[in-house]
Amino acid sequence: MKKLIDLLAEEMQAAFEKAGYDASYGRVSVSNRPDLCEYQCNGAMAGAKAYKKAPIMIANDVVAQLQESHVFSQVDAVNPGFINLRVKEEFLADYLKEMAADEHLGVTQAEQPKTIMIDYGGPNVAKPLHVGHLRSAIIGESLKRLGRFMGHKVIGDVHLGDWGLQMGLIITELRHRQPDLVYFQEDYEGEYPTEAPFTISELEEIYPAASAKSKEDEAYKEEAMEATHRLQQGDAGYMALWNHILNVSVTDLKKNYEKLNVTFDLWKKESDAQPYIPDMVQYLKDEGYAHLDQGALVVDVKEETDTKEIPPCMILKSDGASLYNTTDLATIVERMKLFHPDEIIYVVDKRQELYFTQVFRCARKAKLVDEDTGLFFLGFGTMNGKDGKPFKTRQGGVMRLETLIGEINDEMYKKIVENRSVKSEDAQKTAQTVGLAAIKYGDLSNQATKDYVFDVDRFTSFEGDTGPYILYTIVRIKSILNRYVEVGGDLAACSMSGASNESEKSLMLELGKFAGMIENAYEEKAPHKICAYIYDVANAFNHFYHETKILGEEDEYKKQSWIALLAFAQRVLETAIDILGFSAPDKM
Ligand code: ARG
Q1: N or C: which end of the chain has fewer CB within 10 A?
Q2: Within the chain, which residues score under 50 in pLDDT?
Q3: What confidence score (pLDDT) does residue 308 get?
């Protein structure tokens, strides 16, 4: 289905042509003076030079062609040569009806769907999720949904960190605490227990304890490094422990991601890429991409146009150990082999930007990816507290994700109970739904690359540019529609017709922009554009609502048209928030 703005442009292009000018001047944009017009065309200004004519003369010629237009209700040439446009109500209503009849609300589905892998979440085994993981999860999830809405095949991969020193640290600490466990017996040959020798809360205490010790005690650190090495060599007892750590952790991670309404298609791990390393290293050597530098194996990735120094990508350390880079490159090899993606998008803290520049360049240079495989780094900024410093607990520690979600939900619960529109037994559940919207919208409404301030008071407010405000608007629409049905109205019999007042028209115009907005948000990997859009729609709806007595309207035809418009607005809003990864309750 064509986008509204393209249909408007087609009408303008035809008019330019009929008036004897080149059709390409008939470009249309949303008006930057909404008080004067809805859309505008600046083609006459652009054409003045080519035709050696005053722009206003061209504008007048074009306007003369549009007197009978079925698309525009008003077309004005204004000095020095702008063309101001208003869309015909019937045309707009027809467009919205066509959108409503389309499963994707007028968004054209990709003709050649791409396979897109999104690497997001990035939690580390045995470490609890903290606020630093929030952004990756929220942004990645919405990009995944956005890609799918456009008709692409999108695969979300959590890319679990399970292969580093943290594993050796945990094993070492366990060894100190419980040296008698069978996992540590050299000559043990029996089956290892199926039950893990720790719970998730023990695990979450063990890791920080071990990490702290290793910072003070050199010998302890050596031991942990040795344990990591032994694990990576495949020691049976250590592997069995590692499996326990993994299982206990993943169960807990899944539970937490579920609370965020975030799901992954793949629960791949760094360790899954390890089998690809030996062949990859051999290949890099054989093909001459890698060379030794002070004992380490590196690939040069600097380019002539670089304005800052891009260090070589290190593949193996001088002791032969692999690194974070090695794993990421091997993961690329694995992904190409198993999924052959057209694009891989990494949603990771922007402080890892240089690192990913090295990895991508190395992958390209060494042809680990096809020439036309896109590698994208979407680096996000830091989530700060009100003091402008990275978000912390009141005690100054790293805040666990669970704690943050809990705090927001408590705050929402208080507000919802105050409102008294929800039965108290439902209030808890509603608080979770609205709380999630508060968190996600608060995050996604900012451009991903920028830092932002996580402000609990602002994010949970029912007013302003917030998740709860958007949900409140949807709930308001739902309640009007419910009342309409309660008094015997039939939603299916309602159909949109032309606008009868300015605020209704504004709402219709906003709704008509949906497809263009979605395409743009997808191309720019910019969920914040969806937030900005639904905020505009919500404002337009509330404006209309305050000016119009909808259910009290006597003219049945008008009333039905409004009801249809409301149902449609609800659908547009709910589709958009679903792409953002949250939903609306029935009441709040
Ligand atoms: N686990 C990593 C960290 O905590 C993030 C992983 C990002 N993804 C990747 N392919 N490197 O920093």
Answers
A1: N
A2: none
A3: 94
Nearest CA to ligand 1 atom 2: 122
Q: What is the pLDDT of residue 130?
A: 85
What local confidence, expressed as pLDDT, does residue 231 receive? 92
The pLDDT score that the predictor gives to residue 239 is 95
Taking the centre of ligand 1 as the mean of its atom positions, its distance from the CA of residue 122, in whole angstroms, is 5
115: burial class by Cβ within 10 Å (0-12, 13-18, 19+)?
middle
Ligand 1 pocket mutation pick from 348, 360, 378 by most atoms within 8 angstroms of CB: 348
- Tell me the C-alpha distance between 242 and 232, whole Å: 10
pLDDT score, position 131? 84
Structure tokens at 541: 């709806």
Q: Which residue has the tokens 């619960």?
A: 413
Q: What is the pLDDT of residue 399?
A: 85
**HSE-CB for 256 with a 13 A CA cutoff:** 25
3-state DSSP assignment of residue 344: strand
The encoded tokens of residue 18 equal 């009929």
Measured between alpha carbons, how far is 349 from 383 in angstroms, rounded to an integer?
10
C-alpha span between 83 and 40 (Å, rounded): 6
Q: Which two tokens stand for residue 190?
A: 């029996």
Per the listing, tokens 């890319």 go with 159
| Reported pTM | 0.95
Q: Is 249 in the pocket of ligand 1 (CB under 6 A)?
A: no
Q: With a 6 A CB cut-off, is 122 part of the ligand 1 pocket?
A: yes
The minimum-distance atom of ligand 1 relative to the CA of 348 is: 7
CA dist., res. 11 & res. 23, Å (int): 10
CA distance 163 to 351: 21
73 phi/psi in degrees, rounded to 5 = -90, -25
Cβ pair 29, 39 in contact under 8 A: yes
The closest residue, in CA terms, to atom 7 on ligand 1 is: 122
Residue 364's CB is within 10 A of a number of other CB atoms, namely: 15
Ligand 1 pocket test, candidate residues 117, 118, 120, 124, most atoms within 8 A of CB: 124
CB 328 near ligand 1, within 6 Å? yes
The pair phi, psi for residue 299, each rounded to 5°, is: -120, 125
Q: What is the DSSP letter of 526?
A: -
Burial (CB count <10 Å: 0-12, 13-18, 19+), residue 294: exposed
Q: How far apart are CA 120 and CA 136, in angstroms?
A: 6
Query: Quick check: 215 and 224 in contact, CB under 8 A?
Result: no
H helical segments located in 102-232: 131-149, 165-177, 200-216, 218-232
Ligand 1 proximity of 465 Cβ (cutoff 6 Å):
no
The residues, ordered by sequence, that sit 6+ positions from 127 with a Cβ below 8 Å of its Cβ are 166, 204, 207
Q: What does the pLDDT read at residue 440?
A: 98
